[in-house]
Amino acid sequence: MTLRHILSLTTLLTLITCVTDPNHRVAADESSAKIQTEFSDAPNERSASADKEIYVPKSEKELRRSLTRIQFDVTQNESTEPAFRNKYWNNKDKGEYTCIVCGQKLFTSDTKFKSGTGWPSFYAPADNKNVGYKTDNYLFYTRTEVHCSRCNAHLGHVFDDGPKPTGKRYCMNSASMNFVEKKSSKLNEDKAPADSPSESK
Fold first, then answer.
1. Is 141 helix (H, G, I), strand (E, B) or coil?
2. Residues with catalytic roles
3. Which one of 97, 124, 161, 170 has the minimum C-beta count within 10 Å?
4. How far apart are the C-alpha atoms of 40 and 58, rounded to whole Å?
């Protein structure tokens, strides 16, 4: 008997066993079902990666082209803009403050307060994950530097002399941020239309 005949006989016996032996058939069905489940439960990595926003850092040339000189010096070289002579120190409008480099949301007007320092100050970021920190040794004392967690743009420093509820003062540079004003959706229902006809008696 040749090897081919032996293999054919083995295959035939296996098929007969699957048909006649219910336990063998159930085990085979369970194995097949398990494999199908594993494939169906596997995450769609392509879809997940497509949905995740990927930030591509700008080159120095691109940054210099898109930012003003003071914006570049502050965000990239950790410079500090002049107090009381910056864009948002006295801004009282409602809205959001986003990173001037990458657009990530950093602060909102809800946590902005008057600090008297001449720089826009907040007692909390919009989201703790959106800012990062590092120790900054300056003129023989230690400060905590604050930067955008997405692009590492320098924002300013945080101090422990702020108001409640956090006790923090995020002293930021206007040059590091862009302000997006909140549009009011409230309708003035008390104001009657100008061409409203008067009711005749």
1. strand
2. 171
3. 161
4. 39
Kind plus residue range of the DSSP H or E element containing 19: helix 3-20
Q: Read off the pLDDT of residues 107-139 as tens digits, 9 standing for 90 and up.
A: 999 999 999 999 999 999 999 999 999 998 877
The pTM of the whole model exceeds 0.85: no
Tokens at residue 50, please?
């497509």
Report the candidate in 164, 156, 62, 171 with the shortest Cα–Cα distance to residue 116: 171
Residue 45's SS3 state is helix
Confidence of residue 175 (pLDDT cuts 50, 70, 90): very high
Q: Which residues contact 79 (CB under 8 A, 6 or more apart)?
A: 70, 73, 154
Which amino acid is located at 198 in the chain?
S
pLDDT tens figures, 41-70: 444 444 434 444 788 999 999 999 999 999
Contact present, 168 and 124 (Cβ < 8 Å): yes
Asked if 127 contacts 96 with a C-beta cutoff of 8 angstroms, the reply is no
> In the numeric block, which tokens belong to residue 7?
């293999």
